[in-house]
Every structure is written in structure tokens, then in C-alpha cells.
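seq:
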Amino acid sequence: MRTMITAERLLTPHEAIDSPLVIVEEGRISVLESRSAVALPPGRLLEFPGLVLAPGLIDLHIHGGDGHDVMEADSEAQEEFELRLLRHGVTAYLPTTVTAPLEKILSALDRLGGSISQSDSVNRGARALGIHLEGPFISHEKRGVHPPANLLQPSPAMLDKFWQASQGTLRMMTIAPELPEASETIAHARALGIISSLGHSNATFEEANRGISAGASHATHTFNAMRALDHRSPGLLGAILNDDAVTADILADGIHVHPSVVNLFLRAKGPDRAVLITDAISATGMPEGIYKLGSFDVEVKGGRCDYQGKLAGSVLTLDRAVRNVMKFAEWNLQQAVTLATANPARVLGIANERGFLAPGRRADLVVLTPDGEVAHTIVAGEMVH
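struct:
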């Protein structure tokens, strides 16, 4: 069925179009023009007066939400979680693992990989695009809440084991570049098409740059679980913030990173290389209490997720992260939404499919109020929230 969608404004997100008309056929955009330039053909019309159309949001780092942890063996809970992501405008995401005993990681990768492989035919909610492996290739000093007993030294052979368990669906790997064989593992990940993201690391500036030279191209929750920036010993942060070839994500919840430092990060990385993530855990969208992150219990109170005195993920949603950037950095909606749409799509190498609105691309859209609140979510031309 042909569907026409109109609103007050559309963000591609790099271009703003007033009074747009989006025509969707077979789940893809066939026409995107100003409404005054195109006569309405026969079909269903979705009108959103006073609202803004933007690409569906993409979360590169999320552990769960609404009581569900992505490492749980519960397919029904995963489906419910993916449907609930639509409330926040998220139409695609990377389910993110956490350090655990090897067999548990392999089991989670196998289950998630199988689900991703068949999701084209059964998925009704946000689409899992691949798996983000956070741990076990991380620094003991900067492990955060990841269990020290389950950390592993990186190696191409171990990465192959994870790759095979995931059925070839690993898309991103967080790795500390100072670890033995990290550079070899990063190079092997690149050959497999896995994005290496530097994080949970105590690396020096030189060690970080070796990882970048080996093929690492992204950074995980910048500032958190990293050696602090020092003006004489800049460390991993100095490498990330200075290198224009490296993209980086950040937790803009006002808890993990002070709003003024979020603003500083955005100035350093610029509008094309900064990415918003949530690092959300199962407690997101739930009342305060005790919730799971992998195999351990996290206490959620006052918007903080704590495990033994350390921050353990967040209860941030991606639409709120967009609104926080508008507040913290005084960016407008178009600038802020780019950090959760076009930029993560470019990181994943899928900008020809998602993250932008243009003819030929998937008709995954979020309908926003002018201040960034989610009113509706559209997947493949169908209004699903």
C-alpha cells in the first residue's frame, strides 16, 4: 500500500524541509519533496500538523530496558523490549553484552545472533542490527563493574570464537588497546567487518594511537572508564578528542558526564563525529529498585544505577539524550537529532539504508514535537507507536 506522510517540518537530518511530503511504497521512501511541489497520489495519508519528521533513532550501546536484559534467554521478553524501544523513537539498536563467564557470553551471542538472523521476517519492533561485545577484552584498572574474574586477554583466536558463536552478527567490540595482542585483535576485527571501539581502558596516548593505527575507529562512552585527561599525559582521551578519524559516543544523562563536559566533548568532536548512546540497563522505564545487568544486581535510585559504589549503566533513553544535548549545549533539534541518527548510521556503515531520510532508504521515522518529545514512531511506513 502507498502511504503519504506530511508534517510541519522534516529533518533529513542534514537538511530541513518545511511542509514535507514523504511517499512510502513497499516500506521504502519513493518520494521526498515539499508538499507544494508534488500532487498527492491515491493512498493512505498520515498527517502530523505542528510536528517534525526525522529518521528513526539508532542506539549503538544498550543492555536492556523495561525489566529485560539482552543476555537473558527469553525471546518473548526481547520482543517486548524491542516494541517498547519504539516509544522512544528507536528503530534500530545494537544489543550489548557485558563481561560474564565465557560460556555465558558464548550462549548469549548464539541466541542473539540467531534472533538477528531471522528478525527480517518476524520483527515488529526496533531492529537489532548486530551485537556490541562490551567486555571481556577490557582493562582490569578501568573495568568499571565488569567482573574481574571473567576478563580475558584479547586474541584473534578468541575473537573468532565470539564471531562464530554470534553467527557472524558481531558489529562492534569494545577493547582496551594497551592489552597484549590488542592491535592484532583489532586488525582481525577489521578484516571481519567488526568495528573496534576503544574503551574501558587505562591506555597511554601512545598505546591509544597504536590501537587507532591497527584499525580502531570509535570510542565507547567517552570519559567513563578511561584514564583521566592530563595536560602532560593525555592518554586515551587525548587521542580520541584530537583524532578526526575517530568517532566517539557519550552518555549525555548529566550523571555520567557533567553537562559542561558534554558541551566540551561536542565542541571537540564536532557535529559529524559525536554519537549519543544510552548504555541503558533493564531498569530503564521501571520504578526504583534492584535490577539485573548481566549476572549481577544493580540498585537504581534517583536516576543512578549503582553496583558496589560504581556506576553500572544508566536509565537514559535516546530521545531524552537528544533533548539533553539541546539543553546542555544549546543545540537545536536538527543538530541534536543528527547525533542519534546520521552519525551512528555512518559509524555502522549503513547510511545508505538508515539514519537519513531520502528516496530509496527505509521508511523508518520518528515524529517529534518541536522540543524533541516523541509523538509517534513509524517503521517501514507503518505507524507502530
